[in-house]
Amino acid sequence: MDGLLIEALTNSAWAAAMALLAVIAVRLARPRPEVVHLLWVLVLLKLVTPSLIRHQAATPAGPSEQAGHQPLVAEEANPALPLTKGELEGVSGAGLGDRIHPPVSPPRKGGSESRPVPSVIREPSAGWPWRTILAATWMAGALAWALAIVIHASRVRRLLRIANPASGELTRRIETLAARMGLRRAPAARLVPAPIPPMLWALVGPPRLLLPEGLWEGLDEAQRDTVLVHELAHLRRRDHWVRRLEAVVLGLHWWNPVAWWARRRVEDAEEQCCDAVVARTLPESVESYAEALVTTAAFLSGVRAPRPFGASGVGRVPPLRRRLDMILRDETPAKSRPVPAAAMLVAGLSLLLLPGWAPARARQATPPATNDRDATQPQPPAPSPAVRDAEPGKDAAPPRVRVSQPIVRDIRDGINFVGVVEAARSVELRPQVAGTLTEVRVKSGQTVEKGEILFAIDSRIYQMKLDRAEADVSRAEVQLRRQSAALKNTEKLSASNVVSSQEVDLSRAGRDEAIASLRAATASRDLARLELESTKVTAPFRGKVGRPLLSVGSVVAPESTKLATLAATDVTNVVFKISQNAYHDLTRADANGRAALSDAALAIEVWDGRQNRRLRGRLDSVDTQFDPQTGNLECRASLPNPDGFLVPGESVSVTLYTGEKRRAMLAQLGPMPAGSLRGNGRPVLVVDDEGNVEVREVTFGPHVEGAMREIVSGLKKDDWVVPLAWMGPGARKYFPDGLHHGMKIDVERVNAPEPDSTEP
């Protein structure tokens, strides 16, 4: 508690000093608004920035200590003094009876009796718990501030629920101005039917523009553009992050007037910076901007509509006159530039170098020894848990060694390669129509079926377009029936020589025009229906969806906004590369004249440390030329993946089996590198029926299948083989002398693994 109090007071003192320096710098040097904003932000940062350099400071004493009371401390006892016989006789019996005698320790060897002086114990007096009261008061203020922020956020949420989405024209204008100002993404805008100031809300969630409908209807196009540029300037400057910093600082320093003072100065500097951005972006609309500020002040006058905490807007009304003078007199720094990020980082890190104070450490009191002999007598060390649990003279029993017999079966030789899993089909989900995203029905990594709705866009506009198109079709059908009836009557009159043939031609032309109008109306209706259906973004095939890139409320554009990525999981591709020598070995024609590569069977083996998952696939394509830099040829294979076991980007082992089947003996020797096993004269351990170890010299073949190795000679079918791992240095943990010929061990006899079903 003392350390936190001293740290808070130290930061407050430094922040107050920095605030005074900022005021003096503004008065004398008149720096740019960006520099003023940075100075006051540094004041806020110092309030929550610890100091790396600390000096020891005395802890403030409590009321009980200030009154002269001492805490509960036992004074050190004086050493025992020997009493002579004369001293004992000089003490009267009455005096001895009135005293309380301390216990006398037994006499030491070769000396007289001694008595210890009793320790003096002082009871502490009950004082005022000022630390507890300070902590409770600070906690109550912090909770009240957090509750106020929650209330402000809930008010903004209510405004968003009753707000109307921006029109398409307003949305396009915001996107145009945002692109002009260098923003990558324009914020979503809402028109609020309430007397609030224009603001940018980004304390919680994505940034949103809140514009009052009453004010917006009273502004012309130029004034609206200036207000939008002002709010977008807050977003480009990332002032919403400063609002979050203010929330943290004021939550911890709600009692500190320096924090509230710095917050007010930060917001004033932000408004001046945004005014400069408006004057620089729209120099021809400076007067319109001033009129917009006056209209905003008049709109908010007489209405108690405070700006919610966490929002950045047009600012407070009192400094409006000074801002208007600066704008109309062209005193805005048109050539001002934002403070470089490097300068802000250096300034922020320099706050850590300001010295601080820490409470002095109390010296640890050494408890007095109750007896001289006990204090000087060395104590035996406590035994460690390992020593207590272990029994002397007994070692842990060696484990049972698992052995198996070789198997003989048909195999085919193969060549191993390293491949990478790729999705067979992967598409980027993009909308076909523009609008506001109203639903996100998928989560990252979710498996979806074909035709399932993933995203939904606001369909009200497209529904109205479809209704209008259907009405046009009905009108065209009525017109066609009218023209057809007129043509029929005209033809009858022409047959009676009542009208001329020219009238018949005109009626026929009117009928043909009605047919064309009906076709155009039908096409427009079909297009409107297609646009309405496109507001539902569906999955084109079954697969797994990546992370959704946008949330509800985002404005999307047709074919340019990426929503997510969909990858098929039922079928995957494996891409691997083969060397030139392997390619020529695989393409060498056999006795029947067939190319071995085109007929090669394919097995995919996943690298999971155990290599126990094997899948069968087929070779789809082989590149037409070698890579001149690596000398490898790229191949692609496809294989089913119904359970989604293979994940794109995963490394797998690819085996291409070639040649005819042959009979071979396989022994389970464990996961050892195949290259180190091939050759003659390799020692292998076998055991007999009684567990006696015997060393055999064996010859390994080229075939490797997981833990199974091909044995050419040296073993028999009924031999019990010990895995090669028991011949390595790790076995000396259980067998200090290693496994050697003639040694007897305890074994567990198991069956060799079944043949691989994926091997052809």
From TrEMBL:
User: Which GO molecular function annotation, any one, does this entry have?
Assistant: transmembrane transporter activity
Query: Start and end of every Peptidase M56 domain?
Result: 10-327
List the protein's name. Answer: Efflux pump periplasmic linker BepF
Q: From which organism does this entry originate?
A: Aquisphaera giovannonii
Q: Positions of the region Disordered?
A: 95-118, 362-404
**Classification via NCBIfam families:** RND_mfp
Superkingdom to which the source organism belongs: Bacteria
User: Domain Multidrug resistance protein MdtA-like beta-barrel spans what residues?
Assistant: 574-657
Which keywords does this Swiss-Prot/TrEMBL entry list? Coiled coil, Membrane, Transmembrane, Transmembrane helix
A Gene Ontology biological process noted in the UniProt record is: response to antibiotic
Q: Which gene encodes it?
A: bepF_2
- Asked whether the UniProt record includes Cell wall biogenesis/degradation among its keywords, one would answer no
Q: Which InterPro entries match?
A: MdtA-like_b-barrel, MdtA-like_BSH, Peptidase_M56, RND_pump_MFP
Transmembrane helix listed as a keyword: yes
Which ranges carry the Multidrug resistance protein MdtA-like barrel-sandwich hybrid domain?
Answer: 425-559
Which family is this sequence assigned to? Answer: Belongs to the membrane fusion protein (MFP) (TC 8.A.1) family.
| A single Gene Ontology CC term | plasma membrane
Enumerate the transmembrane spans: 12-29, 128-151
Any coiled-coil ranges, and where? 466-493
